[in-house]
Amino acid sequence: MPLPILAQAYRDRADCENVCDEIKNQWGWAGFVTQDLPRCRIMARLIALVYNWWNIFTRLAQPDRHLEAVTSRPLLLHAVGRLVTTGRRKRVRLTSTHAMADKVQAVLTRIGAFFNRLKRIAEQLSPEAIWAIILSVAFRVWLRGKSLHPVVEGHQTLLRLTT
Asked: Helices (DSSP H) in the chain: which residue ranges?
């Protein structure tokens, strides 16, 4: 096998291993102490679901690279929130307690602006189309400019990749 192909295969394997290691060590997928298999499966699925949601959120924050939970959770979650009501409008004001508060403010402002734009057109779209837009924006670097479009086959909704 040529050296460049071998090196890329090694990097790909390491990327997959790093994700499994992150889920196990930083998200609590290391195992459960109960003998009740259905309960273990429910917890494992909940952890996987939250991990996927967090991965999408961090890709909206930093689309060009993966952010590990050990650094991204303190960065993006250490904030004090306050609900401000003026007239009929409600806003959540966040004050970051992180040392990199300026970066956090810029990231959260950008994500908020994206969701505000999406909210303006969301009534015209199906839930599947909304998810396709969110995932297309979150993974735009990985998709290389292509966008996802929902396709229904039987009882399953798929996301088709189009240019």
From this structure: 3-26, 37-61, 69-77, 101-122, 127-138, 140-143
Tell me, what amino acid is at 9? A
Residue 51 lies in a domain: yes
Identify whether 110 is part of a domain: no
Question: Around Cβ 131, how many Cβ atoms within 10 Å?
Answer: 16
d(CA 17, CA 113): 34
Per-residue pLDDT tens for 27-74?
Answer: 777 766 678 888 888 888 898 899 899 999 999 999 888 888 888 888
Please check whether residue 87 lies inside any domain of the structure.
no
DSSP structural state of residue 43: H
Nearest to 45 by CA among 22, 60, 27: 27
Tokens representing 86 are 């003026």
d(CA 79, CA 75): 9
